[in-house]
Design goal:
Length: 414
C-alpha cells in the first residue's frame, strides 16, 4: 500500500483529506449532538440519508424529538441532550412559514391551540396547519389531534372573516394580534385517532414515526419466527467472508408495491417493506406472487421468507441495498400482550405540568385492555392510587405514546 501510494494519489490532496478526517472525528467524538445535527441538516433533502443518520443517532443514544411549535427551529436543532425535528422539514409547511412562525413565537410562546391559530392563520393556510397537527407539533397543548383537525378549517375561515371585518373598521369576536387575536374553540367529543392512524400521518408528513412504530406489537412474532431486522441482515451480509446470499425471515410493513409483466406474460412484484431500522425490497417471481397476491397490500405487516443479498443501488455505485428473493409470504400475527409479565405494573406520575394530558393518557390506556395494574402517583397531593376497574397490556407502542405526552421520566413499568 505504501509503494502504491507514492504514485497513486497526490500527497497534498491526501494531507488535506487527513486533516478533514481528523477534524470530523474530533467533532463526532467530543460534540456528538451538534455534529449529528449538522449532518442531518446537510442531507435534509435526502430521506434515505436522513433515516441513515437518525439510526446512527439512536445507536449513540441520541433521541430525535418530534416537531414542536414552541421548540423546533427551521431545521434540525440540538435540544438539551437530544435533537429536535425541524419545522421546515414537515411536508406542506415550507421554510417561509416556518420562519414566520418562529419569529411570531419569539414575542411570546404559543399558550394553547386557539392562541397558535389566532397568531399564525394570517400567514399560514389550512394545509400547513393541518400538517403540523398530524405530525404532533401541537401535542404539547393536550388536545387530541382528531379534535383539532375537526375544528381547524372552520377556525381558519372565521379568523379570515374577522380580519376582513377589522380591516373594514368593524368590531368582531377577534381583536388585535398577528392572526386576529383571541379565539374561542369548541371541540367535538371525538376520540383520538387509533395508534395506526397517528403513525401513518406522522410518516406521511415527516417520513418518520414518533409516537411508536407499526411493528411494536409484533415483537413476539419476530422472536418466535427467528426473523432478522434490516440492520441484522445488512450487518451479516457485510461481514468479511460472508456468503453472498443468506436464508432469512423478515417481518415488515408493506410500504409500496410495483408489479411487472414478464416476457411470458405472467405477473411478478417488487415490494418495499420496512421495519424500525430500515427497509428492503422483496422480489416475488410469478409463482410466489400468484400464491400471496391478496396479502400484499400497503399497510399490512407480513412475514417474508427467502434469500437476502446486498445489491448495488440503482444509479449509485457507492450504496448497497437489501434485496430479498421471496419464497413464501404469510400474515404476521400481532402479539398484543407480548410484553406482559407476571406481577408487572404500570406507573404514571401526574405533575402540575402534565396534569392537562392525563385525560389523554387514560384514553390511550383504553386502547390497550389487559390485566396489568395501573398505578398513578399524583405529585401535588403526594398520593399513589390504583385506577379502579382498569387494566392494560403494556407493550412498546403504549409506553412510547404515554411517555410522549406525560414525559419520559413519568412513565415506568416495574
Amino acid at each position: 500500500m505504501r509503494e502504491f501510494a507514492k504514485y497513486a494519489f497526490n500527497k497534498s490532496h491526501a494531507v488535506a483529506y487527513a486533516v478533514v478526517a481528523y477534524k470530523t472525528a474530533y467533532l463526532k467524538r467530543h460534540y456528538p449532538r451538534a455534529y449529528m445535527c449538522a449532518l442531518l441538516n446537510s442531507v435534509k433533502g435526502d430521506a434515505r440519508k436522513v433515516k441513515e443518520y437518525i439510526d446512527d443517532c439512536a445507536a449513540a443514544g441520541i433521541r430525535l424529538l418530534p416537531p414542536d411549535v414552541n421548540e423546533s427551529g427551521e431545521d434540525f436543532t440540538v435540544c438539551g441532550g437530544d435533537i429536535r425535528f425541524g419545522l421546515a422539514a414537515v411536508k406542506n409547511v415550507g421554510a417561509l412559514f416556518a420562519r414566520r412562525l418562529i419569529a411570531e413565537r419569539e414575542t411570546r410562546p404559543f399558550s394553547d391551540v386557539a392562541d397558535f391559530l389566532a397568531r399564525t392563520a394570517g400567514f399560514g393556510n389550512v394545509r400547513m396547519l393541518e400538517a403540523l397537527v398530524c405530525c404532533g407539533a401541537l401535542d404539547r397543548f393536550g388536545v387530541y389531534r382528531s379534535r383539532i383537525l375537526a375544528v381547524l378549517e372552520g377556525a381558519v375561515e372565521e379568523l379570515g372573516r374577522s380580519r376582513g371585518r377589522n380591516a373594514a373598521g368593524q368590531v368582531g369576536m377577534f381583536d388585535g394580534g398577528t392572526g386576529g387575536g383571541v379565539l374561542e374553540l369548541s371541540y367535538p367529543e371525538l376520540g383520538e385517532f387509533s395508534p395506526q392512524d397517528r403513525l401513518a400521518r406522522e410518516k406521511e408528513y415527516t417520513g418518520l414515526y414518533f409516537s411508536g412504530h407499526p411493528l411494536d406489537g409484533y415483537r413476539k412474532c419476530i422472536e418466535q419466527n427467528g426473523a432478522c431486522s434490516t440492520g441484522q441482515l445488512f450487518s451479516r451480509l457485510s461481514e468479511a467472508g460472508a456468503p453472498q446470499k443468506l436464508k432469512a425471515r423478515f417481518v415488515g410493513l408493506v410500504v409500496r408495491k410495483r408489479t411487472k409483466q414478464t416476457r411470458g406474460g405472467d405477473t411478478m412484484a417488487f415490494v418495499t417493506a420496512e421495519d424500525a431500522l430500515g427497509e428492503l425490497e422483496a422480489i416475488l417471481f410469478p409463482k410466489v406472487y400468484a400464491r400471496c397476491e391478496t396479502l400484499l397490500q400497503e399497510g399490512c405487516v407480513l412475514l417474508f421468507e427467502g434469500e437476502a443479498e446486498l445489491k448495488e443501488a440503482y444509479g449509485d455505485e457507492s450504496t448497497e441495498e437489501l434485496k430479498l428473493l421471496v419464497s413464501a409470504v404469510s400474515a404476521a400475527e400481532p402479539s398484543g400482550t407480548d410484553a406482559q409479565r407476571e406481577g408487572e405494573r404500570l406507573y404514571i406520575k401526574v405533575t402540575e405540568r402534565n396534569r392537562i394530558r392525563f385525560e389523554d393518557a387514560i384514553a390511550i390506556l383504553a386502547e390497550y385492555p389487559g390485566s396489568q395494574k395501573i398505578l398513578v402517583y399524583f405529585e401535588p397531593e403526594k398520593k399513589l392510587r390504583a385506577l379502579k376497574d382498569a387494566g392494560c397490556a403494556v407493550d412498546e407502542s403504549l409506553l412510547r405514546q404515554l411517555r410522549l405526552i406525560m414525559g419520559e421520566q413519568n412513565v415506568a413499568v416495574r
